[in-house]
């Protein structure tokens, strides 16, 4: 099931409003994502460092640059980081605590 969710998210990855609707649909069906909330500054520092490291190592994760940029420019104080582990691919979703603002998704190949 997680692979199906990840594939659907991948298909709409460039449409933040569709991601928001998709996540609300999951919630209405009783599907919850593993997640935690951290301050925006803390997550920005971690993922900005990962972006710098990925550029240096040549290992780019899809969506990482976009998420880091949106975190930097966001007015959110806290960000929910939700993650989904699949067999072939996993992803991390960055949003407001209630999923009403989607900052983006980072996809990782397993």
What's the number of domains?
Answer: 1
For the termini, the CA-CA separation is 16 Å
Number of strands: 4
Order of the strands making up the biggest sheet: 1-2-3-4
What would you report as the Rg, rounded to the nearest angstrom?
A: 13 Å
Q: What is the arithmetic mean of pLDDT? A: 93
Main sheet record: 4 strands, antiparallel
Helix-strand string: HHEHHEEE
Number of helices: 4
Derived structural class: alpha+beta
- Strand proportion, as a percent range, falls in 25-35%
**Which percent bin holds the helix content?**
40-55%
* Poorly predicted regions: none
Shape: globular
What does this structure look like?
- The chain has helices at 2-11, 16-28, 40-57, 64-73; strands at 34-39, 78-85, 89-95, 102-109.
- The protein has 110 residues and is α+β, with helices and mostly antiparallel strands.
- The protein has one domain (2-22, 33-109).
- The longest helix has 18 residues, at 40-57.
- The radius of gyration is 13 Å and the shape is globular.
Which helices and strands appear, and what pairs or packs with what?
Elements: H1 2-11, H2 16-28, E1 34-39, H3 40-57, H4 64-73, E2 78-85, E3 89-95, E4 102-109
Antiparallel strand pairs: 1-2, 2-3, 3-4
Helix pairs in contact: 3-4
